[in-house]
Design brief:
The structure holds two protein chains of two kinds.
Chain A (H helix, E strand, L loop, with lengths): L22 H4 L16 E7 L5 E7 L8 E2 L10 E2 L11 E2 L6 E2 L5 E7 L2 H8 L3 E6 L6 H4 L15 E9 L3 H5 L3 E9 L2 E2 L7 E7 L4 E6 L4 H12 L6 E4 L15 H13 L3 E4 L2 H7 L2 E2 L2 E9 L5 E13 L10 H9 L9 E9 L13 H19 L3 H8 L8 E2 L5 E2 L4 H12 L1 H8 L8 E13 L3 H4 L11 E7 L5 E5 L8 H13 L6 E5 L16 H28 L7 E3 L2 E4 L2 E4 H10 L14 E6 L7 E13 L6 E11 L6 H21 L30 E5 L21 H12 L9 E2 L3 H16 L1
Helix pairs in contact in A: 9-10, 9-18, 14-15, 15-16, 17-18
Chain B lengths: L6 E3 L4 H10 L3 E4 L5 H6 L7 E4 L9 E4 L2 E5 L4 H6 L9 H7 L4 H6 L2 H7 L5 H8 L3 E6 L2 E6 H4 E3 L2 E2 L6 E8 L6 E8 L6 E10 L4 E7 L6 E3 L3 H5 L5 H6 L6 H20 L9
Parallel strand pairs in B: 1-3, 2-3
Antiparallel strand pairs in B: 4-5, 5-10, 6-7, 6-10, 8-9, 11-12, 12-13, 13-14
Classes of the chains: A alpha+beta, B alpha+beta.
Pfam families (chain B): FAD_binding_5 (PF00941)
GO molecular function, one term (chain B): FAD binding
Protein name (chain B): Carbon monoxide dehydrogenase
């Protein structure tokens, strides 16, 4: 850890709000995405997808003239199912075939792959194929799927449960029975779709000159896709290269190996033609990009002053039909258990979570992973306790948050909170939102008949989870030491090569800033190369708010190592002892002069006769690794406060004000951090008020276009006001913490609490997200009827 | 998804368009394509031929008369919004157009297309009915004109005969003192409404009209609306009869939106202005 010093780097190093380098191409519409790419001789794929959620495939009728252009599971003999196992005791393994085999387990599952010169023609051909199904009862509701007698999604399982996760920490029923306050609530969060601007897509090409299959794919984790694909195809890893070109947002949807990718790769090898598949929005919505469906029954035990004495929960997570590679079907469920206590000091805790298998698309970790759900659940409970105790929810929160003098703090679920002042973030949020003025305003009726409400939510976000967290999961990847390649080119400019992938995180800028911080080189002279297994060192990729910490640390390590080698050559050229030279502004500075990186590079590459005799033979191209001193992860945190106006008759909710006080440690680029928070908050507002992928009792998805699946747009975004605290993490290279997901975690909780606060006087309390106008109206109407009867 | 194969014609005149439609029972007219386009891509609509009427000169013409303005059917929402076409009302049309979907939709979507699509939750059918608009049709048996409330028969259902197209819409001139209230409740900006009401009070002309949209079927049209404006509760029976009272919360939603539209007759400033 060190102090930030961007002033000394000409305002371009760590801590500088440098404008994004990648914007030069992206804002001009000159990026290159999968959809922009076309190879000579390319075929396009359309998938015939299951129209039923659960059915046995009796027969597939493919007309003779489509042979060689339409393929089923039977044609793909030798291709292995996708297996995303975990090492957790009791975990049941689902085998996910790339094309449905024997049964279809969710509506939208790919059954037949059809290839033609264009997608439209492939879709025409699909209409000529008929599949006979025997429909089976569909598990559309996770609470019913776990009941005895429910149809089995996987015939060889005893029930529809991937995994039961549980913990019991100091939970003494007898003692808690006497708690002055006992509040029980049921909370449900909707199933969602991640909806990045760019959907998935891939092109598989067998490159004969390399004897290598290249999969161009819209992914967050090229190296992991490579490993998974090699396993499915039975190829050695060296025979596969995975490249992610420009990627238009991921949010978790691009953090997995998809059956469609396996199909395209297989077909490219089989037909020796480039094969392309581009997910359309309908496929995105119905065929797999699902996430986040939770259900909770919780009881909080508290003292009369709101101090939490204990907390218990039974949760269900609808994990869908298959376990996704590499994160598995239980990441979400198991993290519910460990993350539900959030930033609070809980003395007693008991939780059991079912990762339920259903006839819906597999759920994939989505920005916030489990924490959005647990934060909603816990924060609604804090407000419920406050209502029961007759206290302001702000005070109950403040009373229970982990205090700064307790840091570093080990939570009841053994999370190691690194550093920070959680109550201060809440106090600042209270000031910014104008708590006292709002409470005063609430005593007066609004002129337009609307109700005003104030809601808070506080969370902490574990990011950059390392080996010690992940090795116990036993899933197909474990993050270890993060690597970075650094190479000074013959003209003295720098290439930084990373196995992570930047798809909106601005890493082409922030990683160059870190190189600038270490070497003083102009970020404009640094190329950040990422997303290509052939050009970058292995990495698990971009997920879990890890890149600023892990890749950022690796860039610093690699630049430092490179700096040592540069200094050696520079000292020789300056005829100064090595100890007497240092690096400043891309120069080696000695007691009697300086020499530029350009000169040093020129010497290494073009005038090696001038090198010292004992020069490091590995040259100016190296790979170095990094791992934080404590690898259990950083804990950024934030308090959100929302002010809303609710129209009780129409159910409309307007966000009048929204403030965020967050602590991301040392910010590499504050503007980029703000961007992450704004974007995450927009998604959180979607979770809170709009987004919902519903299914009918046959397991049919009821939203197949964006007219049905509502995403927040510019018109729905309030002017979010952000305040930063910057408590450095003691464990990371610059004191930075992972913040990528945080914005998406708290809005459903803050807005839910604000809506309930607004409607408190009417006896209304909502507990299902999204809190749509229909749900608000219905709750108001139900409260009215209750009041009448 | 991609559209199924279709042929595409771009006739130069109404006569040619009508002839093309008469020739091919599977043909369908298209203008802005903002509703038909997605249906084509989802393969829910599979016309054999698209007859693109958006470039026909007569459908792009605007004819200003003393008693109102006749707009070609292919005038876009954006042209109303931007005031590039004359407005016979004190700014009501620009205000309505500004709230239609999103700008990208408004750039292409047309007033005629919106009326023909006849979505009860869309903006033009409800508001133009309130303004007393009439549609002009052309077909194999010639031209005719209908009051908008007689043209729209129900949800996505119109009096358009086989082979007929809408060529224009006539909007009567309001007096300068006319007041207009328009309120819609949408799940988000630009979405189709869950409840909507448009109301026109133009005492100088003796006109009071109120229309409730976002109905299950036909709009609720009150042509002599002075009494309802004075006492919105008089409308409750019609809301119930229209099936909008299945749940108490739904009825209250529609009641509230009607009241808010009526309130605008006195609260919205006389000179309509769009947000900057």
């Amino acid at each position: 850890m060190q102090e930030t010093s961007h002033e000394a780097k000409g305002g371009r190093g760590v801590g500088a709000s440098l404008r994004r380098k990648e914007d030069a191409r992206l804002l001009a519409g000159r990026g290159r995405f999968i959809g922009d790419m076309r190879f000579a001789g390319q075929l396009e794929v359309a998938f015939l997808r299951a129209p039923l959620a659960h059915a046995r495939i009796k027969a597939i009728h493919i007309p003779e003239h489509l042979k060689g252009r339409a393929f089923t599971h039977a044609d793909m003999a030798g291709v292995k199912d996708i297996l995303a196992k975990t090492g957790l005791p009791g975990f049941r393994v689902s085998a996910q075939p790339s094309l449905a085999s024997g049964k279809v387990r969710f509506a939208g599952e790919p059954v037949v792959m059809v290839l033609a010169d264009t997608r439209a023609e492939a879709e025409d051909l699909i209409e000529e194929i008929r599949v006979d199904y025997e429909e089976l009862p569909a598990n559309h509701d996770m609470l019913r799927a776990v009941e005895p007698g429910a149809a089995l999604v996987h015939d060889d399982w005893p029930d529809n449960v991937f995994l039961i996760s549980q913990t019991d920490r100091f939970f003494d029923e007898a003692r808690l029975a006497g708690a002055p306050i006992k509040v029980t609530r049921e909370v449900r969060t909707s199933r969602q779709c991640m909806s990045p601007l760019e959907g998935k897509g891939c092109i598989a090409v067998f490159e004969r000159y390399l004897e290598q299959l290249t999969l161009w794919t819209s992914t967050q984790m090229p190296h992991i896709v490579r490993s998974g694909l090699a396993e499915c195809l039975g190829l050695e890893t060296r025979k596969i290269r995975v490249v992610a070109p420009d990627v238009g947002g991921g949010f978790g949807w691009k953090g997995l190996l998809q059956p469609e990718e396996v199909c395209c790769a297989w077909a490219a090898l089989k037909l020796d033609r480039p094969v392309k598949w581009l997910e359309d929005r309908r496929e995105h919505l119905i065929a797999a990009a699902n996430c986040r469906e939770h259900h909770y029954v919780m009881t909080a035990y508290a003292d009369a002053d709101g101090t939490l004495l204990g907390f218990e929960a039974v949760a269900h997570v609808d994990a869908g039909a298959y376990s996704v590679y590499p994160f598995s079907a239980c990441l979400e469920g198991a993290q519910v258990v460990s993350n539900l206590p959030g930033p609070y000091n809980l003395p007693a805790y008991r939780c059991r979570t079912y990762s339920v298998c259903s006839n819906k698309p597999p759920i994939v970790p989505y920005r916030g992973v489990a924490r959005t759900g647990v934060c909603t659940a816990m924060e609604l409970m804090i407000d419920a306790v406050a209502r029961e105790a007759g206290l302001d929810p702000y005070d109950v929160r403040l009373r229970n948050l982990v205090r700064p003098e307790q840091m570093p703090f080990t939570s009841i679920t053994a999370k190691e909170f690194d550093m920070g002042d959680y109550p201060e973030s809440l106090r600042r949020a209270r000031e910014m939102i104008g708590h006292e003025a709002v409470r005063a305003r609430q005593t007066q009726a609004e002129a337009d008949g609307r109700k005003i409400g104030l809601g808070y939510a506080t969370y902490c976000e574990q990011g950059a989870h390392g080996t010690s967290v992940y090795h116990g999961w036993g899933i197909p990847m474990v993050p270890g030491i993060e690597s970075c390649g650094a190479r000074l080119t013959p003209d003295g400019t720098l290439e930084v090569r990373l196995g992570v992938q930047s798809h909106g995180q601005s890493m082409e800028t922030t990683m160059a800033q870190i190189a600038c911080e270490v070497l003083g080189i102009d970020p404009g002279l640094v190329n950040v190369v990422h997303g290509d297994t052939a050009m970058t060192p292995y990495s698990t990729g971009t997920w879990g708010s890890r890149s600023a910490v892990m890749a950022g640390g690796a860039v610093a390590s690699a630049c430092e190592r490179l700096g040592e080698r540069l200094k050696k050559i520079g000292a020789h050229l300056l005829q100064a002892p090595e100890e007497a030279v240092s690096i400043r502004d891309a120069e080696i500075v000695g007691p009697n002069g300086s020499v530029s990186f350009k000169e040093v590079a020129k010497t290494w590459y073009l005038a090696p006769q001038n090198l010292p005799a004992d020069i490091h033979s590995d040259g100016l191209d190296l790979v170095a690794g990094y791992k934080p001193t404590v690898d259990t992860g950083t804990f950024s945190y934030a308090s959100h406060a929302a002010l809303v106006a609710v129209e009780p008759e129409t159910g409309e909710v307007e966000i009048l004000d929204y403030v965020i006080v967050e602590d991301g440690g040392v910010l590499i680029n504050p503007m980029v951090v703000d961007g992450q928070i704004y974007g995450g908050t927009a998604q959180g507002i979607g979770t809170a008020l709009y987004e919902e992928m519903t299914y009918d009792e046959h397991g049919q998805p009821l939203a197949s276009t964006l007219a049905d699946y509502l995403l927040p747009g510019a018109g729905e975004m309030p002017n979010v006001r952000i305040d930063h605290m910057q408590t450095p993490s003691p464990n990371t290279r610059f004191g930075q913490k992972g913040i990528g997901e945080g914005g998406a975690i708290a809005p459903p909780a803050a807005l839910g609490n604000a809506i309930n606060d607004a409607l408190k006087g009417m006896g209304v309390e909502l507990s299902m997200s999204p809190m749509t106008p229909r749900r608000v109206r219905a709750a108001v109407a139900a409260a009215r009827e209750g009041a009448v009867s | 998804m991609k559209a199924a194969r279709f042929d595409y014609l771009r006739p130069a005149s109404v006569v040619e368009a009508v002839a093309a439609l008469a020739q091919d029972a599977g043909a369908k007219p298209v203008a802005g394509g903002q509703s038909l386009g997605p249906m084509l891509n989802l393969r829910l609509a599979r016309p054999s031929t698209l007859v693109d009427v958006s470039k026909i000169a007569d459908l792009r013409r605007v004819d200003e008369r003393p008693d109102g303005v006749l707009y070609g059917a292919a005038i876009t929402h954006a042209e109303f919004e931007d005031g590039t076409v004359p407005d016979p009302t004190p700014g009501f049309l620009a205000r309505v157009a500004h709230g239609i979907a999103y700008r990208a939709v408004r750039n292409r979507g047309t007033v005629g297309g919106s009326l023909v699509h006849a979505d009860p939750a869309a903006d033009w059918p409800t508001t133009l009915t309130a303004l007393g608009a009439r549609v002009v049709l052309a077909g194999p048996s010639g031209a005719r004109e209908l009051a908008l409330e007689d043209f729209i028969l129900g949800a996505f259902s119109t009096a358009l005969a086989d082979g007929e197209i809408v060529t224009g819409v006539f909007i009567p001139r309001c007096s300068p003192q006319a007041r207009f209230g328009y309120r819609k409740s949408c799940r988000k900006v630009g979405e189709f409404a869950e409840a909507m009401c448009a109301v026109l009070a133009d005492p100088a002309r003796g006109v009071h009209r109120l229309v409730v949209g976002a109905t299950e079927g036909r709009h609720i049209v009150v042509t002599e609306a002075a009494a309802v404006i004075a006492d919105p509760a008089l409308l409750d029976a019609r809301l119930t009869a229209a099936g909008l009272a299945a749940e108490p919360a739904t009825l209250r939603l529609h009641q509230k939106v009607v009241r808010q539209a009526i309130e605008q007759l006195t609260t919205v400033p006389e000179t309509e202005s769009l947000p900057a």
